[in-house]
Amino acid sequence: MTIGGRAVEGAGTFGVENPATGRVFAQAPECSPEQLDEALRAASDAFPAWRSDEGARRDLLRAAAKRVEDAADELAALITAEQGKPLADARLEVQGTVAGLRFVADLEVPREVLADDDQARVELLHQPFGVVAAITPWNFPVAIAGLKLGPALLTGNTVVLKPSPFTPLSTLHLGGVLRDVLPPGVLNVVSGSDPLGARLTAHPVPRKISFTGSVATGRKVAAAAADDLKRVTLELGGNDAAILLDDFDVDALADRLFWGAFLNSGQVCAAIKRVYVPRRLHDVVVDALADRARSVVVGDGTAEGTRLGPLTTRPQFERVSELVADALARGATAVTGGGPLDREGYFFQPTILRDIDDGVRLVDEEQFGPALPVLAYDDVEDAIRRANATHYGLDGSVWSADPERAAAVAERLECGTAWLNTHALPHPAVPFGGWKHSGLGVESGVPGLLAFTESKVLYRVKG
Hints:
- This protein is of the alpha/beta class.
- The protein is built from 15 helices and 22 strands.
- Helix 3 (72-83) crosses helix 4 (87-105) and helix 3 (72-83) runs antiparallel to helix 6 (169-177).
C-alpha cells in the first residue's frame, strides 16, 4: 500500500483471482484499522501545504500523468490479469486516465464576481474539503481512480483511495507509480476486504466521499456519511434504455449499437441494458445484433484477437447466469448465447434475447453482463414510458436518421445523459451523473471539479 509516501505491507493478505481461470494468482495487502488511521492522518497532515499552491498542484498533476503514461504497459497487464478485459482495452483505459489527468490539470477553478458596486464586491470562491475518501469499483479500476484523483487533487484536497477487493493490484501499483511524484500523504492507497470500505466511510477524518459502485452499497455509504454530514458523490449504475425509431439505419448503426451494450462484456454502468425497437424492425435488428454476438471472439484477455473477456467476479458471473436462466424460463428466446461457456473461468456467451417484455428481471434489473434483451414496441410514446419506468436514471439513447426527431424523444428520457445515435462515450469535459437511484451529484467537467469543493462567499464592504 501507499501510506504517507511510503510502501507499506498489510497486516495480512487476501487472494486476488484471475477471472479467466477463476483461480487465485496473487495476494493483496489487508489494511488494518490502525493502518487506515495512519493513512487518514497522513492525508490530513499533508493537506495544509498541498492546498496552498495551485500552480504546484497543476505541475505535479502533469508529472503524474507522464508517470502513469510511462507505466502504461505494467498497469494494463495488471488490469487484464485481475479484471479480465482484453489487453488492448486495458491499454485504452490507461491512456484515457492519462488524458483525463492532463485535461484536469488545465481546468480553471472558477472565481465568480457576484456583485461589484459602490457598496460591496462579492465573490464566490470554491475551496477544498480537506481529506477525500475515494472508493472505486472493479470494472474500470484505473480509469475511475483517475476520474476521482484528478479533480480532488487539483482543487487542493488530499486523498485516501480504496479499490475494489476484486481488482486491487492495478490501483496499488498506481499508488506506487505516483509515490515519488506527489508529496507524502497527498495520495494514500489502501486495500482490503469489505469491512475496509465501511470503516473508511464512517471515519471522522474524510469530509467528502466519492463512491462508484452498486445501489445497495451506495445506500450504505450515504447512511454512514449522513451521521457525520459528510458530502457525497455517488455513481450507482443504471438500466440504460436504447430506443430505436422507425427510421433506424440497421446497416450503418448496428455495430455501434452492439458495442454500446457489450463493451467490457457489458460491465459498464452506462452500457445499453435493454433495447426498444419498432415492431416492424424488430426481427431485422435482432438478427443484426445476433450476427455480431456470434462472431465476436471471447477469450482470455491476453490472447490475440480477443474482443470480450470473462466476467470479472464469480458473484457477477452467477448473477448474469441466474438472470438469463430466469428469462428463458419465462418464455424468452436466446437467439444466440444463453449461458456460460464450457471452460474454466467466468466466461459467458454473448447473448441476445427476444420474445421478452418488461416485468422480467433481465429487463427490470441491471444485469451488468453480456446479455441484451430486445423488446418490440408499437408506439413511441409507449417506448418512452417503458424506458422511464425504472428506479434507474443514468443514461439513455435514441437512434434515428433524423437528429431533431431523436433529440425531441431524448429530452423526455429521465436520465443524466441522453445520447443520439451512440451511447456512453465519456469525455473529461462533460459532466456525468445519474437521476433517481443512479446516484447523487456528477463527475467530470467543471461541475465534477466543483463537487470536490465547498462554496464560500467573500464579501468586501466598500467605503
